[in-house]
Amino acid sequence: MSLELTGITLTYPDGDSRLTALDHVGLDVPRGSLTAVVGPSGSGKSSLLAVAATLVAPDSGTVTVDGTPTTGMSRGDLTDLRRRSIGIVFQQPNLLPSLTAAEQLQVMAHIDGRKPRGARDRAMELLDAVGLAGQAGRRPHQLSGGQRQRVNIARALMNDPTVLLVDEPTSALDHERGAAVMELITRLTHQRATATVLVTHDRALLAAADRIAEVHDGRLTPAGQPNGRTKGGGAAAHRVHTNE
């Protein structure tokens, strides 16, 4: 497994008590597969993604990335882990307005200490993979919403992560562009062998997933495979733990 969440509980202060955002959640995601996590607003989807990204430490439980438990790691070590092993596709692309599409990606490599020439080649490879090789010199205001989201996805893959976390990638797109972005995420997951978790409230996107899990009131339950398909090693290799 490239991403494993075991017994994750997360609470937040709520007046004199605490609100449970995640309740003994478990999730295993192997490389080369996409798990869609679906649920209503406020159900715990965003909290799940934040914990998986090691941006928020759970009250209890363990997040394991590439076989390495993150419990007890320092902030610096967690930052290094995210930079090298975890790609995050945010709901809004948040591209830097002064940078071209290629430069948006090259910044990621610069942060990781990679050589400029290699970073340029890698950026062009990824822009080609997302269908934007011809737009490499354009800035965000010159790109459509769907194109900006494609740059966002390519940027998340720049440092060759093993884990890809995707937050509501189609929320600001129309149906046609949203379907194209979802197809792209699915294809890149399989081609680049990432362990991908996609959080969404849009059930129309679920047909592209290898596995589906539903979250309600912080509790995660399996919802099987779309249309009864068996992919990515089947149910035995791709588990969602119940909370019992």
UniProtKB/TrEMBL annotation:
Pfam families: ABC_tran (PF00005). Coiled coil: none annotated. GO terms for molecular function: ATP binding. InterPro entries: AAA+_ATPase (IPR003593), ABC_transporter-like_ATP-bd (IPR003439), ABC_transporter-like_CS (IPR017871), ABC_transpr_LolD-like (IPR015854), MacB-like_ATP-bd (IPR017911), P-loop_NTPase (IPR027417). Residues 3-242 form the ABC transporter domain. Residues 218-244 are annotated as: Disordered. Keywords: ATP-binding, Nucleotide-binding, Transport. This is ABC transporter ATP-binding protein. The lineage of its organism: Bacteria, Bacillati, Actinomycetota, Actinomycetes, Kitasatosporales.
